[in-house]
Design the sequence.
RNA sequence: GCGGAUGUGAUGGAAUUGGUAGACAUGCAGGAUUUAGGUUCCUGUGCCGCGAGGCGUGUGGGUUCGAGUCCCUUCAUCCGCACCA
């Protein structure tokens, strides 16, 4: 009989659909294990090759855990709110909810075709009112706790999506989704105070097992810097407060710079107001991108008639405005130390300002001396002669004693812009009342349903389509009962995905986002795999929400995910990112049709190091199909003998069990599969027993579950392959009866000899010199030294 | 500029703590079965050399009995952040 993968795969998928063998139990005596993949955005294009790589990897882990006796939760759902669906709906005159329903149906079918052992009974859909009720509920809790607030701020505005973006969504001045230019606009926006959690988001990375690059990237994004805030008196009366990480260089501060948006500029009466105003206007017109592009050439204007006083030198120094100082970081003002900061140095050179050396060792005529952490202070009054570190401590204390400053920690992280001016998102459950201000919708009124609007086209004014529905926006104030207006912006896509993994534990709960019992049992997630592109978006946001939920007693642990791993991208055969315009897209459906799901699963895991980018290779797919054909033929034609391991294969089998098991845990799926291939090659050299075949099917079943089940059934083994215990190995049986020892002469390999395991040095050396070839080389020479590495090699040094 | 990574045959990629480089697969070559092959099986395949042997993990150095692995230098590519004071 031929390996008819089409028929076999359909057969087992139907059986899984009917009997639900992968449903997780909320009551179980087994230990729990929660494996999570990032749920997909159900786009109209269907599943692409980016999905099967992480999903197959985690399916393998989930299946292995079940075989190891765990009660496994391996859920799936759909992150379905969002712009592409809305845009598609507008273009095709459909309703986004219909588009979403169709896309979810298609995605579900495709995911089932891939044979994943998801618990489909726990599927979530973020656009389901029963789901987003709880997204809104969390928002209300954030609002109640002062973590959601509305502010008039300059925001990132995508000119194509006609919508506000979070800082995390802007890449090189462009919209991360559509690539259109992003400009600055003043808008009143809902914000989430993620900055309040900056410290914990950084520190608690120590408590979790994330791959190092994820931790580093999150830490960099949070951008903690320790320094001091210092007040400079000015001749205008007001003190000018600055943030610096280098308070030790205070004696070298020869001028000051404030950002064009600085508050004090509205108050100060300079001698050159027109010049200042003109500069402010030019700066305002520049996008963020332009401001950073012009990094090389510093611009600025002196604020004439007002001067600051350096608190330690007591000298008057000039104040400039320049757009190289950002309003949004620190205090929006700096003390400029041109001797030891390259930007200040460039500005000082251009405007001919004094440059003073305060740390010895550099050449400040040529460039700023910045890499001076181990230097010694000079020209610095009472801290001269101190090493930099001591100087920082001394000056910080001095400032504090005089009431001129204090130690301060700053973060690059900014608050999360949470409003979107689009239709297809969760309505923000807030009303605005003339009398009471912003008031939360009453909890019992949740979910606040998204109304059915006639037209959900974007508006040029930058308002949500919901704003055009007076019958929906007009409401009563929950507090005073007076007339009030609903918030018309919706939540960003990241809202629903910030807590979805909690809902999986108890999907049908009507009274809470999930029961305490379910949360206590299942959370935190044991292993979460997802894309690097979400490191400073979804992953950070959901950690923030989780910490908040922990603080208000909703979840039992302060971190959502115990372990985070990440997969590399799959590029097209030409080494380019797969895209329709390049015409190098591989459709998983086509591969499944031609070679079958098991082949696709196997190839996508065999393609290379899971964590690195990989190039698709159509011909290499065939190798995996060939392997499965060989397994099939083996079972059909070559098996003989009993249920024990045959003597010929025992060693290879114990080794394979060990290697495949540890490789799966270490994400080395490619070498796990190579091990299985080697084992099959062995079985071709010498026919396997039924027992030999059985263990092969056990090891293969997480990777290629359909063929494993079919062969399991055909061989007449009991039960299902997926429900067998994971095979165990005996360490002593993974070792050879004789050891091949490398013989080196002067470090060069000259031959090999065989000795008994753990032979002592003398035995190994005498075996080596007895070897004919070795004897020939050392003939007439003297062995002056020998190095023996037990069971591995011997190195003879001759003269 | 800062941070992170990568560089190994024709190709994708393997190589515990430094210890026989190139597992496994693709491709290619030869052979067998076949009317035929996008089938299957067998053999070979790092480079140079008839051979003994020599040379080989981006470059150049170093440490070591021994380096793909450790240290320094340099080049190239990719990713993240970017005037963050």
Sequence:
């Amino acid at each position: 009989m031929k390996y008819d993968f089409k028929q076999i795969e359909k057969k087992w998928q139907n059986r899984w659909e009917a009997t639900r063998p992968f449903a997780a139990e909320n009551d179980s005596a087994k230990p729990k294990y929660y494996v999570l993949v990032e749920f997909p955005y159900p786009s109209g294009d269907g599943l692409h090759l980016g999905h099967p790589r992480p999903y197959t990897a985690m399916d393998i882990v989930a299946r292995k855990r079940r075989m190891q006796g765990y009660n496994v939760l391996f859920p799936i759902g759909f992150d379905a709110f969002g712009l592409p669906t809305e845009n598609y709906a507008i273009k095709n005159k459909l309703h986004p909810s219909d588009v979403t329903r169709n896309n979810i149906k298609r995605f579900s079918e495709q995911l089932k075709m891939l044979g994943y052992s998801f618990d489909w009974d726990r599927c979530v859909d973020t656009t389901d009112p029963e789901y987003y009720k709880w997204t809104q509920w969390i928002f209300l809790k954030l609002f109640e706790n002062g973590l959601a607030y509305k502010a008039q701020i300059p925001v990132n505005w995508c000119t194509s999506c006609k919508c506000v973006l979070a800082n995390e969504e802007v890449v090189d001045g462009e919209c991360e989704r559509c690539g259109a230019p992003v400009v600055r606009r003043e808008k009143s926006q809902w914000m989430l105070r993620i900055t309040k959690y900056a410290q914990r988001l950084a520190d608690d990375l120590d408590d979790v097992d994330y791959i190092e690059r994820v931790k580093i990237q999150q830490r960099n994004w949070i951008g903690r810097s320790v320094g001091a805030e210092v007040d400079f008196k000015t001749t205008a009366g007001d003190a000018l407060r600055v943030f610096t990480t280098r308070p030790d260089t205070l004696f070298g501060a020869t001028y000051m710079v404030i950002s064009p948006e600085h508050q004090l500029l509205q108050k100060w009466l300079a001698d050159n107001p027109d010049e200042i105003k003109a500069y402010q206007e030019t700066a305002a017109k520049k996008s963020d991108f332009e401001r950073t592009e012009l990094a090389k050439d510093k611009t600025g204007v002196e604020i004439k008639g007002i001067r600051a006083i350096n608190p330690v030198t007591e000298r008057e120094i000039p104040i400039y405005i320049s757009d190289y100082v950002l309003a949004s970081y620190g205090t929006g003002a700096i003390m400029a130390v041109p001797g030891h900061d390259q930007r200040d140095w460039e500005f000082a050179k251009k405007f001919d300002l004094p440059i003073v050396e305060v740390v010895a060792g550099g050449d400040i005529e040529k460039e700023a001396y910045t890499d001076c952490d181990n230097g010694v202070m000079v020209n610095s009054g009472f801290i001269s002669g101190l090493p930099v570190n001591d100087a920082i401590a001394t000056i910080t204390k001095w400032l504090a004693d005089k009431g001129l400053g204090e130690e301060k920690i700053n973060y690059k992280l900014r608050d999360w812009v949470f409003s979107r001016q689009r239709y297809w998102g969760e309505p923000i459950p807030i009303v605005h009342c003339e009398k009471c201000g912003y008031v939360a919708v009453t909890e019992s009124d949740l979910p606040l349903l998204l109304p059915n609007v006639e037209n959900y086209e974007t508006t040029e004014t930058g308002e949500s389509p919901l704003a055009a529905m007076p019958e929906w926006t007009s409401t009563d104030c929950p507090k005073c009962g007076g007339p009030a207006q609903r918030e018309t912006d919706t939540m960003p896509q990241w809202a629903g995905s910030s807590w979805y993994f909690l809902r999986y534990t108890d999907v049908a709960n009507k009274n809470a986002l999930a029961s305490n019992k379910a949360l206590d049992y299942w959370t935190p997630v044991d292993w979460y795999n997802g894309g690097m592109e979400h490191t400073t978006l979804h992953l950070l946001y959901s950690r923030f929400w989780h910490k908040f939920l922990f603080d208000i007693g909703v979840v039992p642990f302060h971190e959502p995910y115990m372990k985070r791993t990440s997969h590399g991208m799959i590029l097209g055969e030409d080494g380019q990112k797969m895209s329709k315009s390049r015409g190098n897209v591989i459709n998983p459906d086509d591969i499944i049709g031609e070679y079958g799901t098991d082949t696709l699963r196997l190839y996508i895991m065999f393609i290379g190091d899971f964590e690195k980018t990989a190039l698709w290779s159509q011909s290499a797919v065939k190798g995996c199909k060939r392997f499965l054909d060989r397994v099939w033929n083996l079972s059909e034609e070559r098996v003989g003998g009993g249920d024990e391991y045959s003597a010929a294969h025992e060693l290879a089998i114990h080794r394979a069990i060990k290697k495949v098991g540890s490789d799966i845990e270490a994400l080395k799926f490619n070498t796990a599969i190579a091990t299985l291939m080697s084992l099959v090659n062995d079985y071709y050299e010498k026919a396997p027993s039924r027992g030999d075949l059985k263990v092969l099917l056990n090891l293969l079943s997480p990777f290629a579950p359909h063929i494993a089940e079919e062969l399991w059934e055909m061989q007449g083994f009991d039960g299902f392959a997926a429900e067998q215990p994971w095979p165990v190995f005996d360490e002593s049986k993974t070792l050879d009866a004789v050891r091949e020892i490398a013989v080196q002469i002067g470090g060069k390999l000259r031959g090999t000899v065989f000795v008994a395991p753990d032979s002592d040095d003398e035995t190994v050396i005498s075996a080596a010199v007895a070897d004919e070839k070795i004897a020939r080389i050392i003939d007439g020479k003297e062995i002056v030294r020998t190095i023996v590495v037990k069971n591995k090699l011997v190195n003879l040094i001759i003269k």
